[in-house]
Specification:
The protein is mainly beta and about 850 residues long. About 5% of the residues lie in helices and about 55% in strands. It has 5 helices and 43 strands. Strand 28 and strand 29 form a beta hairpin. The chain is globular and about 90 Å long.
Length: about 850
């Protein structure tokens, strides 16, 4: 062996990746070739049962990866090999006869296809491991790129391996890739791209591999929270492991197993005021979580593969909801148990026809117990004390189903699917507020014992019901000609309890590369997106039916006996919840236009304007509130509050986004995004009420989520001694309400604002946090026995910038206009990870 060949062998590294179809399903036995710059095939391999491939001892240089699979269009990706292993590559194969534009998620290239929008945010496994990630929560780190205006009533849409799920039950070590805003107008999903997070998990392989990690934090290395009376003891430990490989000797079965255990001993910081003065206290807040998930993948034949993925999750959270103006006595303890199993089957019916079937079944149980059974006490703008009054047991036995079919003909890829996003038997065993809660307008009325309202629940809180959600779609991605692609889609959504059957949602997007070049691509799209109500409001409606819960709202009650010395009836009239006769499912029309530009070979720029208009948004209104002008008595004395859930709200959002992705310089690779936006609406959601039930003129104002300026950056740079990952997040202040603290409208809510003052008229301070991660890889051993150990040090809020949380908007409070909470001060996190 010559010196040069020996040197090349010493410098050689491994090239790895996975082969998948457009749905994210792996393609076992796909052929992958490694081709050098001269066009010669250096090595050929076959993807294992998990779609994974690897080439060992690849010398430095520029190569092409070429992947092929029967019935699919070949995919080609360029990869540069240096002295460090390149990021794991993801090769995506389209069905035969459909042009493939972009195949490698880590490449920053412009392409004229619906799913290749450059303003999408994509992080692969290698990048994930290099970034500063608090508590190993990759989804929370990525969620800063979401648009709150695109998130539905039920929260962020989470999609795991192509299936929408209600909650994430995947540990960090099992994640291979996270995407946001990929193909934003796809009819496959109910919400826009900027309102969903898509996650691909690691597949099994035909070689054993795994990793184990330990993460540790301690208050001794952290800065003090500005609202902490003293710096309290806190610590955090996270243990995580992953193992994958072949199962049996057939070479057609593989498995994956991941698990993590988290223990958090932290403190919540109370900053409130009572008649004796400021209350500043540290309250222990203990949280524990555990997840176990696995998968078995079996290749039945060349055209048929199935996998089974069970998982289990447990969480306990003690002294929940404490902090700011909420005292320790109002704490609750929350526990969560969940078991799920997912079955996936992928079948190539014919070379141009692919079918994927997924079904998930699961059960969960969530009891919440109050720390104290005493009546609750709320003093507006001062403190919340007494008992937590949060006793509730929630159960759910659910099924999700996803059946999709992909067919290619000519230059069309047609996909159609039927979905059950949720089909659940839900149980709500509600004992919340059985002890009642007193509401005071301020410290003076609290001192004099004159509350403005007393609210209490009694009766039978046991309830079980079936919630059904159905979705179906069809979409056509058409490569009309070179440099021009059109995407047409149509979706329909339905849920029970809402007699609204016309929820048709058309979608359309176009991508055009002038002159058939990949330097510039013009994009435009428009689509209708349906929302959902969520289960809580359905439970509220059913609970208030005869024989269920009875809610009492007493205005100007006695204290401590609400029914004494006030002239109130011994048994006040019951309050009820009902759906408005014309209620319907909310819809959002989103539209956008943008330009993707290739700045350099591996660097792209995207300029995108996005507008959205929300119609028929949910709100609640008391239609039996005392009317103007005196607000004395309720129109129907047989009832107290008659909460009617309406759908007459509206919302407007506009944003301009500038996104840069790729290799910004020789040393830095990542993505950054600046957003200039505005968001206005007249409702905060299905549980929000207007200040005055008969006058909505002051409700049109800045949305709660409105932040005029936002900037987010995630990236990494390789230095001689260590890798440096960087995360930077900044945004301007958000709005909050100015209220009097008084119950001027005698509706029991005490949310009246000064005359002429609209909702959300005040503004908080902004937010800024610089996070970094320094890590170093150490290789132990050689050859197949080699072990890679990574040592890491993360610093969150490195500059220790004070980021205030909640502000007091009650004019009568001594704390008016002041913050009463803050996000975490600087924290250091130590980690060690071993791979084999």
């Amino acid at each position: 062996m010559t010196f040069v060949s020996a040197l090349l062998l010493w410098l050689s590294v491994a090239v790895t990746g996975v082969v998948q179809d457009q749905t994210g399903a792996v393609l076992p036995s796909a052929t992958v070739e490694l081709v050098n710059a001269a066009g010669a095939v250096v090595e050929t391999t076959t993807a294992d049962m998990g779609g994974a491939f690897h080439f060992d001892a690849v010398a430095p240089g520029t190569y092409e990866l070429r992947a092929g699979y029967e019935g699919f269009k070949p995919a080609i990706a360029k990869v540069r090999v240096g002295t460090r292993p390149p990021s794991p590559q993801r090769l995506v194969l389209d069905l035969a006869a459909l042009t493939q534009e972009i195949t490698v998620s880590s490449a920053a290239e412009v392409g004229a296809a619906a799913g290749n929008n450059v303003d999408a945010i994509t992080i692969d496994q290698n990048m994930l491991e290099s970034l500063p990630v608090f508590d190993n929560d990759f989804v929370a780190t990525m969620s800063q790129f979401l648009d709150a205006g695109s998130i539905g009533n039920g929260g962020v849409t989470i999609v795991v391996n192509g299936m929408e799920v209600s909650a994430l039950n995947v540990s960090a070590s099992a994640m291979q890739q996270i995407r946001i805003n990929q193909d934003p107008y796809s009819a496959e999903y109910s919400r826009p791209g900027r309102g969903r997070v898509e996650i691909l998990t690691k597949p099994g392989t035909q070689e054993y591999h795994g990793e184990g990690s330990f993460i540790f934090r301690d208050a001794a290395a952290n800065a003090r929270n500005p609202f902490a009376a003293t710096k309290p003891p806190e610590d955090r430990q996270i243990y995580e492991g992953f193992l994958g490989g072949p199962l049996g000797l057939s070479g057609k079965t593989s498995f994956m197993l991941s698990a993590n255990d988290q223990i958090l001993n932290q403190q919540s910081f109370v900053y409130a005021i009572d008649p004796a003065g400021i209350i500043q206290d540290n309250v222990p807040h203990k949280n524990g979580q555990a997840r176990v998930s696995g998968s078995i993948t079996r290749q039945v034949s060349d055209t048929n593969t199935f996998s089974i993925r069970p998982n289990y999750q447990y969480e306990t959270d003690q002294n929940r909801n404490v902090g700011g103006t909420t005292l320790a006595s109002a704490a609750t303890t929350f526990t969560h148990h969940e078991q799920q199993v997912t079955y996936t089957q992928q079948t190539v019916l014919r070379p141009t026809l692919l079918n994927q079937f997924q079904v998930l079944v699961g059960h969960e149980r969530e009891p919440t117990v109050s720390a104290s059974a005493a009546p609750g006490i709320v003093v507006n703008g001062a403190f919340t004390g007494g008992g937590g009054q949060g006793d509730l047991v929630r159960t759910e036995t659910h099924m999700n189903l996803n059946e999709s079919l992909g067919w290619t003909t000519g230059h069309h890829l047609v996909q159609a699917g039927f979905q059950l996003p949720d089909w659940s038997r839900r149980g709500f065993y509600d004992r919340s507020n059985f002890g009642g809660t007193f509401y005071f307008s301020g410290l003076d009325t609290y001192a004099s014992g004159t509350p403005y309202a007393f609210i209490q629940q009694q009766g039978n809180g046991d309830l079980a019901f079936l919630e059904k959600q159905i979705g179906t779609y069809i979409k056509d991605d058409w490569q009309a000609r070179a440099g021009l692609s059109l995407s047409f889609g149509l979706r329909y959504d339905w849920q029970n309890y809402f007699h609204d059957n016309n929820n048709v949602a058309p979608r359309f997007s176009v991508a055009f590369a002038p002159g058939n070049t990949k330097t510039n691509v013009l994009r435009a799209g428009v689509g209708v997106f349906n929302d959902r109500s969520g289960p809580v409001v359905i439970a509220d409606v059913l609970h208030s039916q005869p024989g269920g819960l009875i809610k009492y709202v007493v205005t100007d009650p006695g204290y401590p006996n609400p029914f004494a010395s006030t002239g109130a009836a011994a048994t006040p009239p019951p309050s009820i919840v009902r759906l408005a006769s014309d209620v319907q499912i909310p819809q959002t029309v989103q539209y956008s236009v943008g330009l993707d530009h290739q700045l350099q070979k591996a660097l792209t720029l995207s300029l995108t304007y996005t507008g959205a208009r929300g119609y028929h948004l949910f709100r609640s209104r008391d239609v039996n509130a005392p009317p103007t002008p005196l607000y004395l008595t309720r129109p129907d004395p047989a009832y107290g509050v008659v909460r009617e859930v309406e759908s007459n709200g509206r919302q407007e959002t506009d944003s301009l986004q500038v996104t840069v992705r790729g290799k910004v310089s020789r040393w830095f690779n990542g993505q950054m995004q600046y957003t200039l936006s505005r968001g206005y609406n007249d409702t905060n959601g299905i549980g929000s009420y207007p200040a005055n039930d008969y006058d909505l003129s002051g409700e049109w104002a800045r949305a709660d989520f409105d932040r005029r300026h936002r900037f987010n950056l995630l990236g990494r740079t390789g230095l001689k001694l260590f890798d440096l990952g960087v995360g930077l997040s900044m945004n301007s202040g958000g709005p909050y309400n100015e209220t009097l603290g008084l119950d001027l409208f005698n509706n029991g809510r005490g949310r009246a604002r000064p005359d002429g003052v609209p909702r959300n008229s005040l503004e908080t301070t902004g937010f800024a946090s610089l996070d970094i991660r320094a890590s170093r890889d150490l290789k132990l051993g050689a050859g197949k026995d080699a072990r890679e150990v990574t040592l890491g040090l993360d610093a969150f809020n490195l500059l220790n910038h004070v980021n205030y949380g909640t502000f007091v908007g009650t004019l009568s409070s001594p704390l008016f206009g002041q913050p009463v909470s803050a996000r975490s001060a600087r924290q250091l996190q130590f980690s060690v990870r071993m791979k084999f």
